[in-house]
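Hi there,

I know you've been waiting on this one. I reran it after we fixed the sequence typo, so this is the corrected version. Both the input and the resulting structure follow.
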Amino acid sequence: MDKPKFDRRKLRTIFIDCLIMVGLALMFAFNYELFIIENDFAPAGFNGIATMVEYKSGFSVGYLTLIVNVPLCIFAFFCISKDFAVKTAVFSVAYALFVLLLGDEVKLIDLSRVRYYTNGVDTIFPALIAGAIGGFVYGIAFRRNSSTGGADIIAKYVSIRDPMLNFFWINFAINAAIAFASLFVYTGGAAEEAIINYKPVCLCMLYCFLSSYVGNAIIKGSKTAYKFFIVTTHPEEIDAEIIKKLHHGATKLPAKGVYSNGDRTVIVCVVNKRQLVDFRNILKKYDDTFAFVETVNETFGSFARVK
C-alpha cells in the first residue's frame, strides 16, 4: 500500500499562517493593554465580556481566554475544520500568553509611558485606535481561514450549518448586550447613589462599529472594481475601444430585445476604479446602447493581456 505523499507546500503555508496569527495575537494584546484596559470600556465580542469580568473581579482576560477558547477550538477541530481550529488555537493561546506577560501579573515590559490614559476626560480617541487595530486583526485572521476565538468560532459553525442565516444580527445582539451591560459595570458608587455613566456605552459602540468596518473592508479585499453590462448594436466598435484605450478584454453574449425583437449583443467587462470615467465616455459615443454597472468586491484569476 502506497504511503500518502508529504505535502511540504501545504505544511509551509500552515506554518506561515500560524506565525501570522502569533503576530496578530501580539498586536491584539498590545491593543488591549495600551488602549482598552486603562480607559474603562468593553470592546466587541467575547473580549468585551472578558474585559468586564476582569474589571469587576480582577480575573485576568488571559486566563479567561484560555478557559473559553480551548474547548471551543476542540469543538472547531471536529465540527468545522482542522485548519481553522489549529490557527484559531494558535491565536487564542498566543493572545492569552501575551496578555499575561504584558499585564500587571508579570509586567514583562513597562507600558506606562506608551499607554493611552484619558485621565477621566471624555474622549473617543482610545476607541478609535483600538477599533481600527481590532478590525485589522479580525480581517487578516478571517482572510487566513482563522479567527480570534470566542463568538467567531460560533459564527463560523453557524455559517456552515445554515449558510442562509445572517449572523450579523446575532453579532449585533451580542455587542448590543455588551454595550448595555457596560452601562452598569463601569458605573461607580453605591447602588442607590450610583451615577449612570454613558461613556463606556458610547466607546463600546464606536469600537464595534469601527472594528466591523475595518474588518469587512479587509475581508472584501483591495481589488475592488466595476463590472459593466452593456447591451448594444455596436459591439465591434466598443470592443475595439475597450482594447485600445482601456487595455482590457471583454466577453460578448448574443441577446434579443424583448420590445423590438431585434438582435443585440451583451458585453461584460470589468475595469478598475480609475477607468470608470473613461468607460462612460466610450459608451456615450454610441446610440442604441444601454449599460449598467455593479461594484465588484474582489477579482480572481489571471488572463493573458491582449496585444
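Quick highlight: The mean pLDDT is 84.

Best,
R. S.
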